[in-house]
Amino acid sequence: MSAAAALPGWRQWLFAAKICGAALLALWIALWIDLPRPYWAMATVYITTQALAGATRSKAAYRVGGTLIGVAVAVVLVPNLVNAPELLTLALGLWTAACLYLSLLDRTPRSYLFMLAGYTAALIGFPAVTDPAAIFDTAVARAEEITLGILCAALVSGLVLPEPVGPVVAARIQAWLEEAGRWTADVLSGAGEEPAVRARRLRLAAEAAEIDVLATHLSYDTSAQARAAPWVRLLRGRMLILLPVLSSLADRIGALRGLSALPADLRDLLGDVAAWSGAGARPEEGRALLARIDAADASLPAEAGWAAIVRASLIERLRELVEVVRDCRVLEEHVARGGGRLRQELAFASEFGARAPRHRDHGMALRSALGVLVSVTVCVAVWVATAWPDGATAAMMGAVLCCLFAGLDDPVPPILSFATWSVVGSLAVGVLLFGILPLVHDFVTLALVLAPPLLLCGLLMTIPRTMPVGLALGVNGNALLAIQDRYTSEFSGFVNSSLALVGGIWIAALVTRLIRSVGAEQGAWRLLRASRASLARAARRRGRGDRVAFASLMLDRLGLLVPRLAAAGPDSPLRRIDTLAALRVGMNLVSLRRARHGLPRDQVAAVDAALDAVAAHYSGAAGTPAEALLARIDAAMRRVGSATGPQGRRDALLGLAGLRRALFPAAPPYRPGPAGATRLTEAA
């Protein structure tokens, strides 16, 4: 890479200038209205500001709400428990831990409200222990300072060349659909299972999760797409369902090629669908393709053979592909126009009205909550045992750092990096505080002195690799600088504050290492175990189910799994797992659960026996499915396929065939026969 290419671009300089300007504006207003600690407003600007204006407004709104809740809790707890320091420490620690637990389970921008409500009480409560009579005034002042920083960040972000969320979301959707179109062409040409294609489809899952995160800020945006937020959610559902549909198509095409049962007319149809998808998937042409797919479909006769069932499954998935891709293009255009009334009917409208559930790891959330509780307790114990004048700072930082990095598998490296750069920041602040600021006597000169380091922090925050560095310097640097309306700095007090700040971070790292840290590979296995548990539940339940809700949950996990798979070693067994095969199992389970309601009693019993065997497999340890499970599936297929019947029969047969292909891709072809021809073992 050339030196010029490594230099920050104009967008990065603009972000740095905006965050610097917002911090100086907050400082000027705080000094003007005589707030006791103006530097809190400056530090808040660096915590709140995001690259996109809508994301900044979203974070600002939730930060204000969380701050007010945390302030109220501190005002209630400190005066009533100040004479019982053990109870006060426990109460503040439990409150912070409970809020962090809720934040980690929420996994939306709203989670920031819970996190702020938690550690704001610690930020205000611990320093107030030495002067509990002033808790109300202190709390009001902190709320004013933090709110001022939030408002300045939102104002500057929204007024000075704002970068709205809407166009970014629209561009990411367009790029996603183009990449999905390339995968579609690969699948329909028979290259869908090559390693490079598998890696690409995993990236699509991760990118869909990123688009979802961006879209959650859309309702706070001022762009034309802001009103289209509900339509983006509908589009996301179709984007998610497209991944297992394509994976199933790749499997069916491979199976028919292996059986030498892919005739020329079907190959021509696949080629035309691929060409349509690659040319932009125009909705009017999609209707003509659907008519051709319907003409190529055929009813399944009694005791249909394996090739006929796989062909019917391929046709069904091809129909779904065209309908979903058509819907995606219709919704993409609708979102780009800014929403409003939909001009074309959606093919899957009846299936995509449900909420999109997210993965929640209660175990890791509890461990994170325990970590912040123990960190606070240890910091307070050191504070009390040593009569440390700045012990409250250590307790505050222990709480804040445990919260900020709780979403990572192993928060210790970023916490230690935060500590390291806080030390660097302390040294730089010391030079500024005692070497330069004594010469400053007006705000203009102060702004000129502060602008270069504030700009540097903003630039560092624009680069993902150095973002934690910029955040550490921007937040802790401003806190240690402690600018007020007159110069009152004392060297011993500065050293004490710096040691307490870094000491609290190190204690948080130590406690996190003992209680909370897991590796990326362990985090991946947790996600895979959660998916297996969901599949077992899906197989046990007999309700009709919701394919989109299930796909949303499983693909949300897949989005979390992709970066962990990338971090796994080349010899890790994780590399050999087909992550979309489990999703295909789940989709077929939901189809079976719905189809069984239209079957005769004897066929329902056979399908239920197969579902129970699938549940038993996913309830146990991960491993190769037992042959008894294959026998159950084949027996159910013979029972359901023994005679013609209603639509439920076809759906059940295709669902069972999908299960067979996902669980036993190398098994010999299914052979039809009398319903009782296979003798089942009881091992399953």
- The helix content is over 70%
| Low-pLDDT segments | 1-5, 676-684
Average pLDDT works out at 84
Q: Which overall shape is indicated by the principal axes computed on the Cα atoms?
A: elongated
Put simply, the count of helices is 25
Any idea what the radius of gyration is?
29 Å
Beta-strand share of residues: under 5%
Gap between N and C termini: 58 Å
Tell me the number of strands: 0
Give helix and strand order, one letter per element, not per position. Answer: HHHHHHHHHHHHHHHHHHHHHHHHH
- Main sheet specs: none
**Structure classification:** mainly alpha
Give the total of domains.
3
Transmembrane segments: 12-33, 62-81, 87-105, 365-385, 415-437, 443-463
Keywords: Cell membrane, Membrane, Transmembrane, Transmembrane helix, Transport
Subcellular location: Cell membrane
Pfam families: FUSC
List the helices and strands and how they pair.
Layout: H1 3-6, H2 10-32, H3 38-48, H4 53-81, H5 85-106, H6 111-125, H7 135-159, H8 165-188, H9 195-215, H10 229-258, H11 264-278, H12 283-296, H13 306-337, H14 362-386, H15 391-404, H16 412-436, H17 443-461, H18 467-481, H19 491-515, H20 520-540, H21 547-567, H22 579-595, H23 601-619, H24 627-641, H25 647-663
Helix pairs in contact: 2-3, 2-7, 2-17, 3-7, 3-18, 4-5, 4-6, 4-7, 5-6, 5-14, 6-15, 8-9, 8-10, 8-11, 8-13, 9-10, 9-21, 10-13, 10-21, 10-22, 11-12, 12-13, 13-25, 14-15, 14-19, 15-19, 16-18, 16-19, 17-18, 20-21, 20-22, 20-23, 21-22, 22-25, 23-24, 24-25
Protein name: p-hydroxybenzoic acid efflux pump subunit AaeB
Subcellular location: Cell membrane
InterPro entries: PHBA_efflux_AaeB/fusaric-R
